[in-house]
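Hi everyone, sorry if this is the wrong subforum. Our group has a chain we'd like a structural model of before ordering constructs, and none of us has done structure prediction before. Sequence below.
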Amino acid sequence: MSPAEQRAEGAGPFTTRLTWHLPGGGTAVWESRLARRRGIIAVRAPGATRSRRTSADEVALRRLRRLNAVAATAFVIGGALFAAGAGVAQFGSGDATTCASVYFVGGLFFNTGGYVSLLQVVNAPRHVPGGEGRLVTRRWRWWSYEPARLDWLSVFVLFAGTLVFAVGLVDSFLRGLSVQQVNRLIWAPDVIGCVLFLISGHLAFAEICHGRICLRRRSLGWWIVAVNQFGSVLFMVSALAAFTRPTTSSQLNADIANWTTLTGASCFSVGGLLQLCERP
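Answer:
Right subforum, don't worry. Here is the predicted structure as tokens:
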């Protein structure tokens, strides 16, 4: 930690909030989620009792608005399609191919939302510790490898989860599979994707709570993470209930699998709607 820095907070080796003294007096506070989602940093002038928020430049703000709108819309549509697919499966209004098709298209939107969320992190304006309390815009990038950043790690795991889901969704079009093949090719990727979603949500909580357990009722970001994590829990319940028993060749509980998929997917749609409001 440099002499200009006052305090670093976070989870384990990850820094999610940084406070430092400004060269001309006063302090600046950088928070990971606020900077990458809303393009702001808090600055307190010498002798002031309250902080003011300064924004990144217009290039960064336009970039963040576009990426946020695309990612949020993708999650809204993807969640709605997954909910529709579960409804078709539960109420028997379509055959297996129809359900698989609806889920597959929904999965493509989840893939899009996951990758664009990663682009949000990769292209977020960066802080300059010990500087003048402003965010710096860097050149556009389509990819980066930054495992030392908690926000990058969270969205990378989320994106990986959507890709694993895609494997199971593609395999669901296969016909004539044995019970063992169904569990290996469709059920296993589903469970792995759910585990990755849960890990991503846990990391997102660690980022917004700076490594502690917290309840922030007035924080839109906290509610987005909480709603999405609840959806991930429901998806995991659905995946476990969808295990095909070798002795009977039937799912453990198809009703639970369908209803938890429907409600979990609805949570992701709600999270996407809330995310539309979390913009610069």
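For your construct planning: The chain has seven helices and seven strands. The beta strands are 5-11, 14-21, 27-31, 40-44, 52-55, 126-127, 135-136.
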